Amino acid sequence: MSTFALAPDPDDPELTRHVEGCDHRGQAVALSVVVERPLTLYLNGTEVVTLMTIGDHPELLALGFLLNQNMLAGDDAVTAVDYDGDLDVVVVRTRSESSYERKLQRKIRTSGCAQGTIFGDIMERFDDIRLDTAAEVRCSWLQSLFLQIGRQPSLYQKAGAIHGCILCERDRPLVYMEDVGRHNAVDKIAGYMHRYGLCGRDKIFYTTGRLTSEMVIKTVQMEIPILVSRSGFTAWGVDLARRAGLTLIGRARGQRFIVLSGGERLVYDLDFAKAAGDDGGELSAAHKIRPDRGASNDPG
């Protein structure tokens, strides 16, 4: 039985389809490929964006997108999220005009264009967020999470060409979302957290994608203090993580990982000498970072 509150359903016939072709020897092959479809998002009566998505959990994706783009504020009471599968449209309704709609109207009236305002608003909120400095992440939790996530059936295992994101608490995976874009998977989790009132301050966020500036910004906006990936880092992602005090762990596989920010939250509760032997080789120096050796929030 799955330990996840919500997880991918690789057997959902709406998410993949069989495609026939031939291989390098000219022999016929058939494989499953991920379905991609448009989803147009409205905030009340305002069309916001059309997203390309696999189509599962459109209501959560819509909520999470608006939250992570700072188009919904904490005082914007959501009264309904309506999805029309025939039109591929989702409408998020609020009790009164949202702060984004008011701001959009003001920008259009003053300049005739609202482009370039959203990123500035996001970064302004980014700098105001204070992540929980008392949060911790144990190496034993990470090892357990990697094993549980790897064993969970997923669309990636069935068809590939997809990203996954998992919300975790200590050594327990809670919510697993997939989509063709990692930002969509993140936004679905943000929508889930908002809908069910989950706090991010004691959570760990795991992604299969690169640790980019976008991933760091969205994790901080969800007030999650720890971000983990099996993939690598971008320089700006590291800079922003250090700026926000986010623990940033990448290249995480098995017992191995690299931490480039927020290393003071790590608790080294594993026998790494034994783990290295079990893993078939010594851990590199980068995997032995301690908070007083290059893993602090100090960008220098």
UniProtKB/TrEMBL annotation:
Active-site residues annotated for this sequence: C113 (cysteine persulfide intermediate)
Compositionally biased tracts (Basic and acidic residues): 289-300
This protein's major location comes to cytoplasm
Q: Which terms under GO biological process does the entry name? A: Mo-molybdopterin cofactor biosynthetic process
Lineage, top-rank taxon, reads: Bacteria
- Which keywords does the record carry? Cytoplasm, Molybdenum cofactor biosynthesis
- Keyword flag Cytoplasm: yes
Q: One GO molecular-function annotation for this sequence? A: sulfurtransferase activity
**Cell membrane listed as a keyword:** no
A GO cellular component annotation here is: cytoplasm
Where in the cell?
Answer: Cytoplasm
Q: Where is this region: Disordered?
A: 279-300
* InterPro entries in the record: Cytidine_deaminase-like, FdhD
Role: Required for formate dehydrogenase (FDH) activity. Acts as a sulfur carrier protein that transfers sulfur from IscS to the molybdenum cofactor prior to its insertion into FDH.
Annotated family: Belongs to the FdhD family.
Q: What protein name is recorded for this chain?
A: Sulfur carrier protein FdhD
What organism is listed for this UniProt entry?
Candidatus Accumulibacter phosphatis
